[in-house]
Amino acid sequence: MTIQLEAAQKMLLDMVQTLGTEVLPLAQCSQRVLAETVTAELNFPPFDRSPLDGYAVIAADVQAARPDSPVVLRQIDMIAAGSVSRAVITSGTACRIMTGAPLPSGATGVVRVEDTDFADGMVRIFAGGGIDQNICRAGEEIAAGEEVIQAGTVINAGVMGMLAVLGKACPLVYKKPKVSLLATGSELVSPDMPLAPGKIRNSNSYMLSGQVENAGGRPAFLGQARDEVEAIASVIAAAPACDMTITTGGASVGDYDLIGEVFARLGIDILFEKVSIKPGMPVLAGVKSGKMFIGLSGNPAAASISFETLIRPVLLKMGGRQRWQRPKIRATLARDFCKSSEARRFVWAYWWQDGKAMLVEPLHYQGNGMLKSAMGANCLIVIPTGTPPLASGSEVDIELLAEGVVR
Amino acid sequence: MTIQLEAAQKMLLDMVQTLGTEVLPLAQCSQRVLAETVTAELNFPPFDRSPLDGYAVIAADVQAARPDSPVVLRQIDMIAAGSVSRAVITSGTACRIMTGAPLPSGATGVVRVEDTDFADGMVRIFAGGGIDQNICRAGEEIAAGEEVIQAGTVINAGVMGMLAVLGKACPLVYKKPKVSLLATGSELVSPDMPLAPGKIRNSNSYMLSGQVENAGGRPAFLGQARDEVEAIASVIAAAPACDMTITTGGASVGDYDLIGEVFARLGIDILFEKVSIKPGMPVLAGVKSGKMFIGLSGNPAAASISFETLIRPVLLKMGGRQRWQRPKIRATLARDFCKSSEARRFVWAYWWQDGKAMLVEPLHYQGNGMLKSAMGANCLIVIPTGTPPLASGSEVDIELLAEGVVR
After folding, report:
1. Which of A203, A222, A315 has the highest number of chain B CBs within 10 A, making it the mutation to test binding with B?
2. Which position among A195, B26, B93, B338 has the lowest Cβ density within 10 Å, counted as fewest Cβ atoms?
């Protein structure tokens, strides 16, 4: 049974749960997904503070100060960053204050040190207008009680800094989905082995491991298995626990006879067998005891697209993300695309801007192997079902790859 | 001395060398940078092979085959993927062949199994046109001797697969630059400590650690140091070896008096002190024994932009990348930007496409703290020197962040 991509996505997404959580030191949280909504316990800044080096004063005292008619005040204290002064500013007095230091009691403005001159305990103020703006107010950036970061947020550099501001030294983050990868095919050998006649190296497991990592998962390698139900089933059954198992390759007539038998042998319930996309139509999806089992084509072009369109969203959801769509934009084909597309088609491609036009070049053209295309891609072109060959200049949808190539 | 951004970038890039290399198991190489150009030792595919399940035949034998007038051939062998047949196809004979199996000697085409019928050792062929296309030729994707992947390539999923194809089980990759991070400021406490009066938490080191990781580096935390030359110098002097040391914060008048003294005490030669950008002008850059020392502002807005514009390219070069520019496009402001820009200005922003228009919204507006802007950004707006306030609808350059937010 062939089903539509959206139906297949929904079936898988509805089936999986977001994984459990773990507490990690903040230093290890870059690019992880936050599993708790973080509320500010305190204002930030926690106190009125000076954004510059200068003198804390009563603003009304110095409002009339001019270079040719300075106001003279008595310095009563000096406040370094990190220190608190017990001084109280009254009319006629000032406090030397450093960047980041808390404002002393009574102060209503800060004069820049460049606009002052100090001698014998007295400071002369040469400019005093608008100095009430030179205060960072408590709670100006963050108010106590504010929900500052939502659960499901990817921890980028800004979020790292904000978690530190909020004192979240050990945030709760989602676990990374662990994905076992098994390549099936009697022709396959590990990349570290010499090639006997008739053999090729297992590349699908390595390509998919990169895709799993990009989707926030942890790949686990189960190696290669011969095209025998017993051999494949026993490797899967003996594998360490994981959240998802992906096989590549089937055998003989109807790509999934063999993997279908393996899944049956292991008591895995089949959800669907084919998805209406090209490449990547054969996708045997099954479930057992809440764990997901996916059989992909042994053709790298098909396996990589099935993964991107169908499996990646599932891993992102498992890993706690709120969104699993890639950024999508319209772009103009810079080269003919000669194939017609009976099913929705995905094409590895490279986009760039020329003037105001967003251009895109399909990389999967004649003579260029699929892995070469995937190596150089920074987007995927999405061509709707029933589209004839497309001439250069046609408009297409593209999905941007964050981990794409810059040239 | 204030220097232009390009001059500062060039000075730093010219000073640093690409780091050394290490050999890693391929499974650990995702997103690392390849340090060797990889040449194919063999053709790929290594032999003529069948892309489908069917029958290997002599194409001329079956050219006239039609559903109502099948051609009948004698099956002389069956070839599974991974096996080699000693059979020789002669006129009147055929070999059953599986996807990925090597073509037997003499065969010049493969008939799809769907177009055949088998009984009693004989196969009936119902369609035989164009079957010479059903062969993947040896070397069709990769020719022996071809330079397939260049040194400096970032190992994405496609490259992972290609390295496996080529038998590079343990590629040579560049080491990741190790960057020590020290926050200076007597007001700073670690994020896991309670806040005494006048104190705030060290957020810069955590924000920068995220930026270092995004630039392919390995952050090392040196904690916080009080605003004292001796304290700061001794932490830096005692730190484990690294490729670059970044401090944040200085103290008192002229942001870098203190760090300038620290660098002098440590015998670090100063390259420059200020760069003509906003925010992020104060950047004290120094070098000693080939190691780089950078003093950034304690203001997170300034530190983050100095890092993105100036330090990130240096880390990318150290880590073996050939390119350190971000993808840059033109976009249209979707909101007024009220500040004028005497120096080149960088603004955290969010871009999206609306119809064919690329729109961008500056996030660093009034009332929104800098870290909140960085949390939600997917690009940086670059505003040239001497630009007045910009009205909604103005065109601007934006640099895309790969690790940006999707909403």
Report:
1. A203
2. B338
Distance from CA of A271 to the nearest CA of B (A): 26
Helices (H), A309-354: 312-318
**Residue A334 and residue A360 share a domain:** yes
Tens digit of each residue's pLDDT (9 = 90 or more) over A195-216 = 999 999 999 999 999 999 999 9
Average pLDDT, integer, range B42-67: 95
Separation of alpha carbons A17 and A22, rounded Å: 16
Q: Could you tell me the CA-to-CA distances from B118 to A151, B70, B74, B113 in Å, in that order?
A: 60, 12, 10, 9
Residue B30 falls inside a structural domain: yes
Q: Does A101 touch chain B (CB under 8 A)?
A: yes
Residues B160 and B179 reside in one and the same domain: no
What is the gyration radius of the CA atoms in chain B, in angstroms?
A: 31
Q: Say if residue B40 is in the same domain as residue B122.
A: no
Q: What domain range includes position A354?
A: 328-400
Find the DSSP H helices in A319-366: none
* A221 and A283 housed in the same domain: yes
B102 near A CB under 8 A: yes
**B92 and B114: one domain?**
yes
Find, among B209, B356, B31, the residue nearest to A404 by Cα.
Answer: B31
Which CATH number is B353's domain given? Answer: 2.40.340.10
Is residue B340 in a domain?
yes
Residue B166 sits in the same domain as residue B36: yes
Interface of A with B in 189-218 (CB under 8 A): 190-192, 195, 197-211, 213-214
Q: Is B324 on the interface with A (CB under 8 A)?
A: no
The domain that holds B245 is classified in CATH as 3.40.980.10
Q: Is residue A280 part of a domain?
A: yes
pLDDT along chain A (407 residues), means of 10: 93 96 98 97 96 95 96 97 96 95 97 96 96 95 96 96 98 98 96 96 97 97 95 97 95 66 96 94 94 94 95 97 92 94 94 92 70 91 97 96 78
Q: What are the CA-CA distances from residue A197 to residues A113, A183, B114 (Å)?
A: 80, 19, 28
- Beta-bridge mates of residue A351: A360
- Determine contact: B366 vs chain A, CB below 8 A: no
Which residues on B lie below 8 Å from A306 (Cβ)? none
**ipTM score of the complex?**
0.95
Tens digit of each residue's pLDDT (9 = 90 or more) over B149-202: 999 999 999 999 999 999 999 999 999 999 999 999 999 999 999 999 999 999
Mean pLDDT of B285-302: 94
Q: Are A201 and A190 contacting, i.e. CB atoms less than 8 angstroms apart?
A: yes
B264 contact A CB<8A = no
Say if B246 falls within a structural domain: yes
Residues B308 and B241 in one domain: yes
